[in-house]
Specification:
Number of domains: 1
Number of helices: 7
Radius of gyration: 20 Å
Shape: globular
Order of helices and strands: HHEEEEEHEEEHHHEEEEEH
Strand content: 25-35%
Oligomer: single chain
Helix content: 10-25%
Largest sheet: 7 strands, antiparallel
Length: 288
């Protein structure tokens, strides 16, 4: 974090430097925009095909075919979840939270897309509905569904407290992927990646710029829903922080299950879906 008491004096032009207006790094006007009304109309014809209940302080996986929808729902109490996405046919293509943040901002909602890692770099999922879109940004700069935090993990817990805790989201996702795909635990862990923090209310403190969390506004019945742009393997952890109003990475918080459901439109509607192509960059990196 930036020092509260700088060691170096500001130059005479400091005020002028601070007043320079910002420039958006990645303007997204040239990106194809999702047709949300059409997708919602298609969603109305979909029928639930599968579901899994993610237990508190645990994880689960489910597969979602391209052109279908999946929904994460709060079903018993205020609970946040950590979401991973993989190409169902190639686990090395996975959700890239950093690039998604650069394109869409720190917090996602309807119309935003979750982009995959290099070299594929294409939309993996599109958010089509969000019952917490009313929250916006609060007076602290907090909002929901962030791509800031990495996921709670046992390594940071060990570093900061000297203790081992095995039910952090990183470990939950590792166990879930290992069990679902029959992978060695260490092989599965290598595929677990930075997350979309579903329902989590977060931001940065205005004085020190530190990542903060506060009580999530999520309540039973709230959901976040996505279109699967490609065939997906979806992993979700019900965070040990519960609603993240106090702490995570412990058994102290009240925690609740989350429902992860898949919704399939009719075959005729699903055939209309066009799977995004792999990124067109030739990967020559300046070498002819």
């Amino acid at each position: 974090m930036k020092p509260q008491k700088p060691r170096h004096a500001a130059p005479s032009s400091a005020a002028q430097m601070r007043a320079v207006p910002p420039v958006v790094c990645y303007p997204v006007e040239t990106l194809p925009q999702p047709d949300i009304p059409t997708l919602l109309a298609r969603r109305k014809t979909a029928r639930q095909s599968s579901q899994v209940i993610v237990p508190p302080r645990d994880g689960a996986c489910i597969e979602v075919p391209a052109g279908s929808f999946f929904r994460i729902t709060s079903i018993e109490g205020p609970q946040v979840g950590d979401l991973n996405l993989w190409n169902a046919h190639d686990l090395t293509e996975r959700f890239y939270s950093g690039k998604t943040r650069a394109l869409h901002g720190t917090h996602l909602s309807t119309g935003d897309q979750m982009w995959s890692s290099f070299p594929a770099m294409r939309p993996m999922a599109t958010i089509v509905d969000d019952t917490l879109d009313w929250y916006g940004f609060d007076a602290f700069g907090g909002s929901v569904h962030d791509v800031i935090g990495t996921r709670c993990d046992p390594y940071t817990r060990r570093l900061l407290s000297g203790e081992d805790y095995h039910y952090c989201c990183h470990s939950n996702l590792t166990r879930a992927l290992s069990a679902y795909r029959g992978l060695d635990l260490h092989e599965a862990e290598a595929h677990v990646h930075d997350v979309l923090n579903v329902f989590m209310c977060t931001g940065f403190t205005q004085d020190t710029g530190q990542y903060f969390m506060k009580a999530s506004p999520v309540r039973p019945g709230d959901y976040l829903e996505f279109l699967a742009e490609i065939d997906l393997l979806v992993g979700l952890s019900a965070c040990p922080g519960g609603d993240c109003s106090s702490e995570h990475s412990s058994d102290a918080a009240a925690c609740y299950p989350l429902e992860l459901s898949v919704w399939m439109p009719p075959d005729s509607a699903q055939k209309d879906h066009k799977v995004p192509q792999l990124n067109a960059y030739d990967r020559s990196h300046g070498i002819s």
